[in-house]
Design a protein that fits this description.
By secondary structure, the chain is an alpha/beta fold. It is 33% helix and 27% strand. The protein has a single domain, classed as 3-Layer(aba) Sandwich (Rossmann fold).
């Protein structure tokens, strides 16, 4: 089953004589439960691609279908609700709420969605699986970088999203914590059947994924199962 279908995606910034073609006809699919690395140099278009898939920007041409929904066809309000219920985000800078403790940070996406019941058993399971239960009442300022990234991962999984988007999730971490976070991502894939699309500049990290998509100059230059299962 395909969770994500990207078809003939183009993104152009600016108009007139010097438009910037950030993406040029990008097409690929992602199956349920895949862990895919998106690699490329700075300015290659990988971050633009992630922003479009995450519904944070709109394509110039082409379509993005997540769970059979064309997100470009949704209204702004529909997109906000769809994104909250179907897409989880893990950022390099964690983006945790400093005034909330670990438990409340993890539960935040669900509590935002008034039409959705907060599954406290699942929230507790996430926090325990990520080794944070003893820190559940602690605040972000009281946590290490690796612990904060774990909280960010748990928060991203709280809504049981169709797709988890991770943008350089290990970029600020040392090698030991990087290995730990990658292990947690793989665990979430196995235990929660999570589908993950991760941007990284680290080739070694990319090799540990199921598949690698390499982007250069806004186009897919290489795609294949180069990683590990």
């Amino acid at each position: 089953m395909n969770i994500l279908e990207v078809s003939h995606l183009e993104k152009v910034y600016g108009t007139g004589k010097n438009p910037v073609h950030a993406l040029k006809g990008v097409s690929f699919t992602v199956r349920q439960g895949e862990f895919i690395a998106v690699v490329g140099t700075s300015g290659s278009g990988k971050s633009t691609l992630m922003n479009l898939i995450g519904g944070l920007d709109t394509p110039t041409k082409g379509s993005i279908r997540i769970r059979e929904h064309d997100i470009a066809a949704l209204t702004r309000k529909e997109l906000t609700i769809f994104r909250r219920r179907n897409i989880g985000f893990v950022f390099q800078n964690y983006s945790l709420m400093p005034v909330l403790n670990v438990y409340d940070n993890v539960a935040l996406p669900v509590t935002f969605d008034r039409g959705k019941h907060v599954d406290h058993e699942f929230i507790q399971e996430l926090i325990q699986e990520l080794g944070l239960w003893e820190k559940r009442k602690a605040y972000p300022s009281e946590l290490s970088g690796g612990q904060q990234q774990r909280v960010a991962l748990a928060r991203a999984l709280a809504n049981k999203p169709a797709l988890l988007l991770a943008d350089e999730p290990t970029g600020n971490l040392d090698s030991r914590t990087t290995a730990e976070v990658m292990g947690l991502l793989r665990m979430s894939k196995r235990k929660f059947h999570q589908t993950i699309l991760m941007v990284t500049h680290n080739e070694l990290i990319a090799q540990s994924c199921d598949r690698i998509i390499s982007i250069e100059d806004g186009q897919i230059r290489k795609e294949g199962g180069d990683g590990l299962d």
